[in-house]
Amino acid sequence: ISTLNATTVLSNNSPVLTVANSTFENTLYVSKNGNDSNDGKSLATPKLTIKSACTVATSGTAIKVASGVYTEDMPFEVPQNVAIVGDSLRSVFVQPSDSNNDMFYMRGGSYVWGITVQNYLGAAFSFPPGGISEPVTVSPYIQNVTSFTTTGTTVLIDANKTLNAIS
Questions:
Q1: Beta bridge partners of 142
Q2: How far apart are CA 73 and CA 52, in angstroms?
């Protein structure tokens, strides 16, 4: 079959995931074959960069990052209560286009899992230098991350950068 047009595809009476039914409102996809003009809401329409996904992510969104090396225009903010989840820290590599820059500016409740950060001299994960003004009721969480740097700081989460104390 070269083309299949159907409103529903079933296998043993269970729906099969297709491009038509694979759009998710609370998940954004990033892939090396993506395009930042895509909406990122399906495996068929992934974003190319994590930064682009972060610009449209809202609280409660998971950004799923496929295997690859991502050279990103950094730093950028991970929105409050947004998760960046890589396929595996052994197959997802993130680096800034300018190694002198910081990488991810975290907000309350932001979460990063399953990536390797590399080739940076600033901070890989920190609060924005100017601080954040919204209440931080859940701290940022960085889990299952590998770091390759010569003089950078992997995690610099300073509660003094919040205008409201972490609860």
A1: 112
A2: 10
* Tokens representing residue 49 in the block: 């960069």
Answer yes or no: are the C-beta atoms of 19 and 6 closer than 8 Å: no
- pTM of structure: 0.84
Confidence band, pLDDT 50/70/90 cuts, at residue 6:
low
Q: What is the 3-state secondary structure (H, E, C) of 88-155?
A: CCCCEEEEECCCCCCCEECCCCCEEECCEEECCCCEEEECCCCCECCCCCCCCEEECCEEECCCCEEE
Cα 137 to Cα 135: distance, rounded to the nearest angstrom: 6
Encoded tokens for 155: 């995690």
The full DSSP string for 45-80 is S-BS-HHHHHHH--TT-EEEE-SEEEEE---EEPPT
Give the model confidence (pLDDT) of 14-31 as tens digits. 766 655 556 677 999 999
**Residue 16 DSSP symbol:** P
